[in-house]
């Protein structure tokens, strides 16, 4: 059955190259994992409609997910996509400490370009690798998130699907709380969020389609 949505919100996936940002989007939108996914050049897109609570009449947010390139050579292009973002997943690889260290730079760039009220989720990906390959302890990541004003931290595995839904749902719910609190002017397109006054219905194929972008 096609599902209507109440709001559409722009969400960006950011972080170093090779952290699994594209794989997280594909896992959420298509329910699959591709171990040989090509490196993102510029930006790729996906979308998913998410109910913000468990009630039968729950409001639904369509997350328009912008999966950005993490390579240094595309940094200026990537930053341009931050404008108008309502939410962000800041992704690092739990087995590569450098990707966690660089999260500070990504956060500074995001907050310098995006709306001050952007909903940010810290995501430690590749938790399926296990503690023998872990370089970033959970407690350290959680403390870093709290210290930097990030309201949610989730460890995920794009390979197994663990935590992926939770990460995007946390982001959608935080965006919804901001909507209900009157944080956004829904008539101002620069906020990256829009009300669906027509309650447009989309097919499941349209909801889950991920298409490539270019720089």
Question: Overview of this structure, please?
Answer:
With 215 residues, the protein is an alpha/beta fold. It has one domain (3-208): 3-Layer(aba) Sandwich (Rossmann fold). It has seven helices and ten strands. Strands 2, 3, 4, 5, 6, 7, 8 and 10 form an eight-stranded mixed beta sheet that branches. A two-stranded antiparallel ribbon has the order 1-9. A hairpin with an 8-residue loop joins strand 3 (43-51) and strand 4. The chain is globular and about 50 Å long. It holds the Pfam family Ras. This is (Perigord truffle) hypothetical protein. Belongs to the small GTPase superfamily. Rab family.
Topology:
Blueprint: E1 3-4, E2 7-14, H1 21-30, E3 43-51, E4 60-68, H2 75-80, E5 87-93, H3 97-101, H4 103-113, E6 119-125, H5 138-147, E7 152-155, H6 164-180, E8 193-195, E9 201-202, H7 204-208, E10 211-212
Parallel strand pairs: 2-4, 2-5, 5-6, 6-7
Antiparallel strand pairs: 1-9, 2-8, 3-4, 3-10
């Amino acid at each position: 059955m096609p599902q209507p949505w109440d709001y559409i919100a722009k969400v960006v996936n950011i972080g170093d190259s090779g952290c699994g940002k594209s794989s997280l989007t594909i896992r959420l939108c298509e329910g699959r994992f591709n171990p040989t996914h090509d490196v993102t050049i510029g930006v790729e897109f996906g979308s998913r409609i998410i109910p913000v609570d468990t009630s039968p009449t729950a409001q639904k947010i369509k997350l328009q997910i912008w999966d950005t390139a993490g390579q240094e050579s595309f940094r200026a292009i990537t930053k341009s996509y931050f404008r108008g973002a309502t939410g962000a997943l800041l992704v690092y690889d739990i087995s590569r400490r450098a990707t966690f260290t660089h999260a500070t730079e990504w956060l500074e760039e995001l907050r310098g370009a995006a709306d001050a009220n952007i909903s940010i989720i810290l995501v430690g990906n590749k938790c399926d690798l296990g503690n023998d390959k872990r370089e970033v302890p959970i407690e350290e990541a959680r403390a870093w998130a709290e210290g930097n004003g990030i309201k949610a931290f989730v460890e995920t595995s794009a390979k197994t699907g663990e935590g992926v839904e939770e990460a995007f749902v946390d982001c959608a719910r935080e965006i919804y709380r901001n909507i209900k609190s009157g944080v956004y002017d829904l008539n101002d397109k620069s906020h990256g969020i829009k009300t669906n006054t027509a309650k447009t219905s989309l097919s499941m194929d349209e909801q889950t389609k991920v298409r490539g972008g270019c720089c």
